[in-house]
Amino acid sequence: MSTSSQHQFRYTQTPSKVLHLRNLPWECAEEEIKELCKPFGKIVNTKCNVGANRNQAFVEFADLNQAISMVSYYASSSEPAQVRGKTVYIQYSNRHEIVNNKSPGDVPGNVLLVTIEGVEAGDVSIDVIHLVFSAFGFVHKIATFEKAAGFQALIQFSDADTAASARNALDGRSIPRYLLPEHVGSCHLRISYSAHTDLNIKFQSHRSRDYTNPYLPVNPTAIEGMVQPAVGPDGKKKEPESNVLLASIENMQYAVTVDVIHTVFSAFGTVQKIAIFEKNGQTQALVQYPDVTTAATAREALEGHCIYDGGFCKLHLSYSRHTDLNVKAFSDKSRDYTVPDPSMLAAQAPAAAWQNFQASPMYPGGSPAVQGQVPGGQVPSWDPTVQAVAPSYASAPGTFHGQTYAAPAYSPAAMPAASSPLSHTSPVSHNANSLGITQPRVQQNVNVQPSGASPLGPGSSPVMESSPDAQGLGQPTLRPGGASPPGQAPYHG
DNA sequence: AGCACA
Q: Can you give the residue ranges of the RRM domain (predicted)?
């Protein structure tokens, strides 16, 4: 043994109440580490799954002598410290206390946040998730979603103990291969706790389930297969229709406020809710109508038109996968016209709250349950472009954890493609008014017809009274019913 | 197999 090697790690020799454990098994659970350490004293803190490989941990004893006794014991023991048969290396930490050992995801609760790594959203059906986690207790609710972190699921158990047992057993584990499509490689579960205590599931769908309420309606637009935008032979997208429109606003030289959106879209029917958000640097808005027909009318009439003269704020409309927006009733980016009383907002527990929770880690530390509230009045982080892919995997009955499971409640029904009448969804208009995306020479204006009747296509678009310059910024020029002949655009950019 | 950033 060279003196240099002794010097190399000399600094680790200073005793500390905190021990550094390394070479732990993959995603070793906190309980396993405690089991190893607690014979030597009282553990006051741990920090697990640290290091690049998440196979290290820190354990803080109440007393320095307890830490010394553990190090001393294994220094002289013929049997090394082991977890799951794997030798664990124990040294004094170079710090003397564990600070902030609990990240929010480590605060136990009855709802787990599960990240399924290495899969696409369509690879793991909600039935498979349910199957896997049901082995540990009754799964009340599941909500799945896609975020930057990947495909995730919130899984609600009855209590924190059940959730903890599932977490301890499955964190870092993989979903069995036979439950996955063949093309999926590794598929590790990364599990932490959610701050939620009760998920608000609005529909039984391919992405959310409430097993406590079998009578919950099935979201008609979220049935498997329905949401996947089919591509026809001509390459046109055939989206499922919806009562909610997704408006992308191109060339947004002027502010587009909730009020502006409301004004424009109210021409075709009652606008129930609006949410404005940014997506890939482009402003988009979700506009909710009471029914699909109204939305279709508005879509037909507004597609390709500009809110302002001069080719500004050009609208591109598609159907959202949403059917009922959960938005803050009054904010600068959203409006819920069905909730006149702001105090009602608390009762409008948005199912999107957990999405928001994912997007912005602003859950109050230690504060119980941000349940049912959109935190901070933020606009929910809608991600309408993430169109869920219909699971190609049909979960078959099988056994897992020694239990036999029935077939999934939802068979992958064939997409009722015929129900989508939209055959002219091409982004490029074939009409005379060739609204060049880059060089809009002729102004196409929003035609507002309060009756909503006989919406005009882009080719027969009437014009607004004037350019935004004449009207001042921020106010679209709307002339109800004042249909001018086509080609009479007064503004030439 | 060698130190934490939530």
A: 17-95, 242-322
- Using CA atoms, how far apart are residues A80 and A65, in angstroms rounded to an integer? 20
* Separation CA A375–CA A3 (nearest Å): 57
SS3 A345: helix
If phi over 0 gives left and psi between -120 and 50 gives alpha, with beta otherwise, what is residue A400? beta
Task: Assess whether A23 (CB) lies less than 7 A from strand B.
Answer: yes
Model pTM score:
0.39
Contact assessment for residue A97 and residue A60, using Cβ atoms and an 8 Å cutoff: yes
The per-residue pLDDT for range A165-179, each reduced to its tens digit, is: 999 899 989 999 889
How many CA atoms within 13 Å lie on the side-chain side of A237?
Answer: 13
Residue A231 has what pLDDT? 56
Q: Which nucleotides of B are covered by protein (CB under 7 A)?
A: 1-6
Q: Distance, angstroms, CA A453 to C1' B4?
A: 64
CA dist., res. A75 & res. A395, Å (int): 51
Tokens found for residue A24: 């732990």
